[in-house]
Amino acid sequence: MPKLKLFFLCILYMNCLLPVSVVKTFADDWSFSPSATLTQTYDSNFRFVSTPTPGTTKGDAITSFNPVVSVTGQTEQTTFQFDTTTSGQAYLENPKYDTVTTNTTASLTENWSPIFSSSVNFGLVHDYTLENSLLASGIITPYQEHYLFNFGLGGQYALNESWNLIASGQYAKNIYPGSPPSEALPGSDVYQGTLTPAWTINARGDNIGLSNNFAYSAYANETTIKTITETLFFQKFLTESLNVKLSCGYYFAMLDFLAPAREFVIFPLPPHFVIVNLPETGTNGGFVFGVDLKKDWSEKLSTTFSAGNQQYNDVDARSFDSTFINGSAAYKLSELTTFNFGARYNTNAQISQGNLTIDYYTVTASIEKNLTERLLVRLTGEYDYETQSSPSLNLDRYRTWIDLTYKWPRFLSSH
User: DSSP H helical segments within 138-191, as ranges?
Assistant: First the structure.
């Protein structure tokens, strides 16, 4: 245990010195890589609701402009990465939903010696909850403004040629400004730590390890969720074009929350019942698993398949047992044209404060073509369908969009 504490203290101390390394980084090799995407979308149900709110339409045409800037600096020991994405969206029929979102991240990795490296990362996100929640879990959430601030530390230590110890810690703060505030989703502070010893079995890179994860989520509505997850994983490179990763384990969740209850009071007269929120606790546990399979069938065709089960906390401070299946394929019609297909299924069973079940299906197909070395055009179609229990609800939507992306060459690069 003292060695483990020393390992974490070394990570923190080393990363406090990392800003000094930035100077070295920019003195050696750094580059500036911008790109921009113009998108025109038709969405048959852009808020993914059964009926639109008064004064709005259910479907709309949306124009988006998305500039991206990446800055990279590198020496033999240090890697610095900065990425920022801004997306402006204009709605033809519902201009009150016009938005500007941003996603900015920065990371710094230092290789202090052949056996020890550390990293620090920061992030700032301003977006809206609906699409991100669907992408993560298939759970529909209210369309609401969202800010995310996160900070993380990590380190990797090679105990010998075969054994590695990987440690990381992360803090994230979620803020949902509402108007009025009573309509806002509950904000949260999330703390997460992971410790993973891993063993490299052979020269091909096959490895086995045990991931030990602890997460603590504290919500503004006085709900807290503490989760411990132990996962054993195994990754094997069967051939140069086929590799598989398997994981299995168990999670245990402890929940504290306020639940409405009827309480009999005498005063003020006459005696009557009132609804009060009383503290309650609950526990839940279950198996987790994961499967990742990647296969390159030929120079033209490649496929991926993944499936898994995990414990998931949504933005409403609810806990779910969440399972997903996902598959994708990419086929090169020519050197410049590629066809992509993907399908995903999520099912979520609530394990706290209710018995809601949510099933989500999505199918996506796209074709992309490099018009020039720098200019790419992509046409995409997607269909989403969701069912919910308690209360019963069925929702669907169809989206199609065309992207035009231009990537500038790397600026200021020394090679």
Answer: none
Tell me the backbone φ, ψ of residue 391, rounded to 5 degrees.
-85, 160
215, part of any domain? yes
Could you tell me the residue range of the domain that residue 160 belongs to? 2-407
Instruction: Quickly tell me which residue has 């993973």 as its tokens.
Output: 196
Let me know if residue 414 belongs to a domain: no
Distance CA 234, CA 255 (A): 31
270 upstream amide cis, omega within 30 of 0: yes
d(CA 343, CA 113) in angstroms, rounded, equals 43
pLDDT per residue over 214-238, tens digit each? 999 999 988 999 999 999 999 999 8
Q: Pick from 355, 333, 359, 331: which is nearest to 346 by CA?
A: 359
**Residue 243: partners with Cβ closer than 8 Å, 6 or more residues away:** 235, 236, 237, 293, 294
CATH number of the domain encompassing residue 18: 2.40.160
As given in the structure block, the two tokens for residue 118 are 């550390």
Q: How far apart (Å, rounded) are the C-alpha atoms in residues 375 and 333?
A: 18
Can you tell me the distance from the alpha carbon of 345 to that of 326, in angstroms, rounded to the nearest whole number?
6
Tokens found for residue 193:
């730590």
Q: Which long-range contacts (CB under 8 A, 24 or more apart) does 259-264 make?
A: 259/353
Closest CA relative to residue 290, chosen from 231, 243, 345, 238: 231
220 and 186 Cβ atoms separated by less than 8 Å = yes
Structural domains counted in the chain:
1
pLDDT tens-digit profile of 304-334? Answer: 999 999 999 998 888 999 999 999 999 999 9
